[in-house]
Amino acid sequence: MDKIRNFSIIAHIDHGKSTLADRFLERGGLVVKGEQILDSMELERDRGITIRAHPVSLDIEVDGVKYLFNLIDTPGHVDFSYEVSRSLKACEGAILLVDATQGVEAQTIANTYLALENDLVIIPVINKIDVKDADIEGTSKEIVDILGFKEDEILKISAKTGEGVDNLIKAILERIPAPHGDPNAPLKALVFDSHFDTYKGVVVYVRIKDGTIKKGDKIKFMSNGKEFEVEEVGIFRLKMEPEDVLSAGSVGYFTALIRDPLDVQIGDTVTHANNPTKEPIPGFRKNVPMVFAGIFPLNTNEFEELKKSLEKLHLNDPAFTFEPESSEALGFGFRCGFSGLLHMEITIERLRIEFGQDIIATVPNVEYEIVLRDGRTITIDNPAKFPDPSNILEIREPIVDASIMIPPDYIGNVMELITSRRAVYKEMLYPEEKRVIIRFEVPLQEIITDFFDTLKSVTRGYGTLDYEFIGFKKADIVKVDILINKKPIDALSFMAHEEKAYYVARSMLEKMRKVIPRQMFEISLQAAIGSKIIAKERIVPYRKDVLAKCYGGDVTRKRKLLEKQKEGKKKMKMVGNVEIPQEAFFSILSVK
Ligand code: GTP
């Protein structure tokens, strides 16, 4: 066990985590020059964001002695702090990587706090020292001033050229403690991730704290009491490699023909069924979804398939929740919960790309607490469940404590942005000359739509955002219904602050007017709060005859046009007596 080191690399996005991981893989003999192996999912490469944490075990030789380094990759974005936290629990130490050209960013601070909460030994490392305009001294000062490390603790490397990486490996050996635990005690293993394998069932990623696990063992998940017989245990190299046994200190996986993804919960403790450990490992920070949206299959008969995909996704990503819902306009689908907007975007993309699902997602909203006149307090995450306003005493919305870090030049722009979002300014901190932290409280609803994109554009990409939920606060929230030919379209209803409802409704109707094709009758579009109409539009009738363009002559052209029209028809959704093309729904629902 004294030859094992379990650690993560934590960093802000693009500070070089994957590049450094590549250097470790090379040192461990898993050579992958030029390719970023840990970011293996196609999507991750596209987005340049590490979404899933997957470990890799490396044989690293130092001064003729062989060590086993278990490197657990962690995601770097604000939406994924739960995933960072759960993989940190499997480690004794963390490398905190800071880009010398960017300095300490909001996420660097957030990640450092997470690592400290998990009692990890942190090695601060400045990366990209090979870059010409790298500000090594400034970055070092920030690490000392903002994060509180000592200057002589900081290592300097280039993950790209490999400079300094040997020193880092030595520091890992010296500073990060080897795991401790009792291999003879009853099994106590922490579930920190999982994925689904069609043949093997759920592959459970574990960190063994005490005891051993091997093929044939009868194991039990302590949270739900479910028992299984272990089929295979092993460690991760580039692929999964079976081993005879995993014992205290190890990081690896087991399979046990677990068919139901929902049986395996991240943060759970695995023990032996007939010789259980007394206490489970203290719980992971429970992640509560904060952003909700409906997801519906485009073809109603793909509901079951979508359900299966969602179950698999949930297994890889427990921060994501789902439950069935039905909509008059969109049919049967699911109400899904996400930790943030980026998490939602990525999940939807994964459903489309990885799982090949044709889906439609409704406008995201937060969860509201509603105090009813009869004294009950309910929480709702779906406009469809909004109670009759006459029964409502008070509505409360989630508030977050947010901080934006920027160079001072952008203070004006950022103040303007947050003021337009119902934010309450708190304070401005100057951790050093070139950086300002603006702290404010803001309703979560205000930052889940286009806030991050706007922030990036008004700060030329420099601004970083971090936020934390602090509680619910009373607010004037209304439900807005959208009606087509007087018929409310449930999938288009939304909840908003009274002051913003009119504006959002207007832009939604305008967009609808542009994207819904004229039909043979007039279409009226209305937005209403209760029975009060707050905005309206109309689409004048029009007879669409594609063949009129053909002047009778060319038959093949005619046929092509007809076929094209038929294709178009297939992608229509009927809403009452109005045909709405799929495209239109997409753009209506993407209204910010
Ligand atoms: P996420 O997975 O999105 O969090 O990013 P990451 O932290 O894994 O960053 P990644 O390793 O993808 O590096 C981001 C960019 O910085 C890439 O273009 C790298 O080639 C580059 N980079 C990383 N380390 C160095 C370095 O030491 N020197 C130089 N010059 N470039 C580097």
UniProtKB/TrEMBL annotation:
A Gene Ontology term for the protein's cellular component: plasma membrane
Mode of membrane association: Peripheral membrane protein
EC number(s) recorded for this UniProt protein: 3.6.5.n1
Keyword list, A-Z: Cell inner membrane, Cell membrane, GTP-binding, Hydrolase, Membrane, Nucleotide-binding, Protein biosynthesis
Superkingdom per UniProt: Bacteria
Catalysed transformations (reactions): GTP + H2O = GDP + phosphate + H(+)
Localisation per UniProt entry: Cell inner membrane
Domain Tr-type G: 2-180
SMART domains: EFG_C (SM00838)
Pfam families cross-referenced by the UniProt entry: EFG_C, GTP_EFTU, GTP_EFTU_D2, LepA_C
Molecular functions per Gene Ontology: GTP binding; GTPase activity; ribosome binding; translation elongation factor activity
Keyword Lyase: no
InterPro entries: EF-4, EFG_III/V, EFG_V-like, EFTu-like_2, LepA_C_sf, LepA_CTD, LepA_IV, P-loop_NTPase
Chain positions recorded as GTP binding sites: 14-19, 127-130
Top-level enzyme category: hydrolase
Gene Ontology biological process terms in this record: positive regulation of translation
Record function comment: Required for accurate and efficient protein synthesis under certain stress conditions. May act as a fidelity factor of the translation reaction, by catalyzing a one-codon backward translocation of tRNAs on improperly translocated ribosomes. Back-translocation proceeds from a post-translocation (POST) complex to a pre-translocation (PRE) complex, thus giving elongation factor G a second chance to translocate the tRNAs correctly. Binds to ribosomes in a GTP-dependent manner.
Matches recorded under PANTHER family: TRANSLATION FACTOR GUF1 HOMOLOG, CHLOROPLASTIC, TRANSLATION FACTOR GUF1-RELATED
Family statement: Belongs to the TRAFAC class translation factor GTPase superfamily. Classic translation factor GTPase family. LepA subfamily. Belongs to the GTP-binding elongation factor family. LepA subfamily.
Protein name in the entry: Elongation factor 4
Organism, as annotated: Caldisericum exile (strain DSM 21853 / NBRC 104410 / AZM16c01)
Gene: lepA
